[in-house]
Amino acid sequence: MYAAKIDTANAVPFPAALFPVRAASFGDDDLPMDLGQVMHFARGAEIFGQGEKADCLYKVVSGWVRTYRILRDGRRQVEGFHLAGEYFGIEAGGSHRASAEALGPAAVQVVRRTALNDLAARRGDVAATLFRLAIQGLERAHEHVAMLSHKTACERVAGFLLDMAERADVRTGLELPMSRQDMADYLSLTIETVSRTLSQLQAEGLIEIPKSRNIILRNREALEEMCE
Amino acid sequence: MYAAKIDTANAVPFPAALFPVRAASFGDDDLPMDLGQVMHFARGAEIFGQGEKADCLYKVVSGWVRTYRILRDGRRQVEGFHLAGEYFGIEAGGSHRASAEALGPAAVQVVRRTALNDLAARRGDVAATLFRLAIQGLERAHEHVAMLSHKTACERVAGFLLDMAERADVRTGLELPMSRQDMADYLSLTIETVSRTLSQLQAEGLIEIPKSRNIILRNREALEEMCE
DNA sequence: CGAGATTTTGAAACCATTCAAGCGAGGTGG
DNA sequence: CCACCTCGCTTGAATGGTTTCAAAATCTCG
């Protein structure tokens, strides 16, 4: 059975170098995170773990973060990848239902829930934004369900590449920090199928894979059409 | 291609017989819905439709409700079934991303979002409850993802039956108001596979199906074990 | 009872998985 | 510097579970 193996040797977040951040302004879907502090994580470092107390809200400043759960049968379900500007770690109860790890060196802004709750109680706009963030997560989860429900391996992989390209804001040249196993656990495929599918897309000329984690989108329209 | 065909003839909600409801109290995950009104829907009636303005929040008083989306490829994805006491129709933007229909005669409490937002702005506990409801939906969606990710048809159907039994609060005798197509669209299987799987479970003595929508759980432990 | 819809069953086809082996880059030690 | 090892990725062949297409059986309701 698969188990994620991460070297935890260099997985220690910078402890002392925390510095408050001044948010000049914050839009509709942004919180006044000047409450929070930025923490730095090394590649593979755990930001929080499944079952831990959930007393913070997180926002990616730079780098990539993956959130995942270990299911009862031992499988790993990657719930999502988070890029700069995106929030994660929003939970209902007192404990995290998922774990979060830095895919590469990452900076993450961390806000205490208590501080946020206090602020939300005083400011309706903050409460409304919190609510909106939760709902956005809900929508992403529903998209995930739709993706898993009846898509072929090809459609899943193509959709994944387009989604990543859009969120990373690149036109063609994708630098993906996650492994094939990460993709497989997100798309609910096996790593062999992911690899095979990528090879097939390359053979069809839709993409090019100079290095395994560097994927160039050669024909976006065909990829988009593939996802319908 | 499948298309849901519902007779919309008798699908008109009672128009005038709206009456305010007095909520004696409301717990942690309940809203003071005395703001709302109870509306009655006939079998198959649409409570709201995909794309419509989302200016209300809904709570099932009696009966069953299904929420679903029509995907780009024309398939129908049932997002969930909602029983008495459960909320649905929580959306982020201005429009519903899903449709909701009554599976049978159903009573639904309806609250205007504007009223709720006003209340939430004044009362922190209401805002917090709204937030919690959103997160609960998020968790359910994540469970849905986990279910779809690597479960066999057998595990899905068994898990579905147990979930329904638990939520309907029955020990053995399940009265399911939804069709095989509804189950299939929720579990992401075909109706043939759902039917075959139920027959198989019956052959193994785990369940009994006196009538197609009446399922008796004969061996809960074996069913639970099946889902791990 | 009869007509239409829903559900069940059967057989063949398909797609992803599984098991197994080969490839290639990065790192260590001789 | 090269041999060697490891780890992640790729490729191949066989298996198996779900889907698809087809048809029979059952239920519901006028």
Descriptors for this entry?
homodimer, 4-stranded antiparallel beta sheet, 228 residues, DNA-binding, Jelly Rolls, 24% strand, alpha+beta, Arc Repressor Mutant, subunit A, 2 domains, DNA binding (chains A, B)
Give me the secondary-structure category of chain A.
alpha+beta
Q: Biggest sheet of chain A: strands, sense, closure? A: 5 strands, antiparallel
What's the shape of chain A? elongated
Widest sheet: strand ordering of chain A: 1-2-9-4-7
Molecular structure report:
The structure is a homodimer of 228-residue chains. The longest helix of chain A is centred in the middle third of the chain and has 27 residues, at 124-150. Helices cover 36% and strands 24% of the residues of chain A. Chain A has 2 domains: 19-124, Jelly Rolls (Sandwich), CATH 2.60.120; 151-227, Winged helix-like DNA-binding domain superfamily/Winged helix DNA-binding domain (Arc Repressor Mutant, subunit A, Orthogonal Bundle). By secondary structure, chain A is of the alpha+beta class. In chain A, helix 1 crosses helix 2, helix 3 crosses helix 6 (220-227) and helix 4 crosses helix 5. Residues 1-27 of chain A have low confidence and may be disordered. In chain A, a hairpin with a 2-residue loop joins strand 11 (207-211) and strand 12. Chains A and B meet through helix 1 and helix 2 of A and helix 1 and helix 2 of B. The structure holds a DNA duplex (30 and 30 nucleotides).
